[in-house]
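Recall that a protein's primary structure is simply its ordered list of amino acids. Everything else, from secondary elements to tertiary packing, is in principle encoded there. The following example makes that idea concrete.
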Amino acid sequence: MKRRYYLFALLLLAYTCLIPLNSIAAEKEKKKEDFKIPSHVLSISKENTFPNSAEDQEVVEPSALTKDLLKKVEVPIENPDLIKMLNETTLKPSPIAVGYRGMIYVGRWPLNYQSSDTNINWEYQQINSNELNNIGGEKDQEIYYNQQEQRNVKGALTNKISDPEDVKKMMLLRTKEKTNLPLSYQSIIGKDTKKDNSYTVPIKKSGSLKAYAPAVNEKGKVTFGEVYIQLKGSKKTIVVKNVTKQGIGAWIPIQDHVSFSFQLK
């Protein structure tokens, strides 16, 4: 009888432990769903009359020396420009430099970006409107998307911050990784870009087909710090001092994608 009781208690404990894990997994899955492109948003990468160049950020791999230096630093360093600079730095203290000490000031840098909230506005900016009046018509008609004028949709940081270009790079890298979307701080939709998708305008009705450029609203924190390379004899370490954090946000357009809204009157 006792064995049955212990077995039941063990199973109950295992079940209750699994509940939070399942809920965490469900939450992660739900978050992934947020970044799926809905059916009313279509790619125009092939149809776009303006060939956008993808904003592929350079992924800088740290050298063996830089990897060794980054392992020992307390504050994570993810800034690709800083990593690139460290890669290009040659440090070869003499192995017989007993008692040698030195501190090289590298500068104050944005060290890393931590994302706290990522949302998508599928109607970030209206870029086009096509109208069709079928009030006096004798049969149903079709309305199609036809871009009337070239539109340049630009993203930007939402508030002032030091080293904005470095910050933009880190935010773009993290947001691309998080959403798996073709993001860029600029998306141009060329004049006369067309799409085959059609919308029916019945008789005695007028139709309006509006097109929007979607964008990601990204929010998080940037960590800043003064970076030093410390030399002690033959040993080298990175020291970060005066660490501060600042909140930051950005709008980043989804390149070569258009969101459509069709209305009848």
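The first strand starts at residue 41 and ends at 43. Residues 1-34 form one domain.
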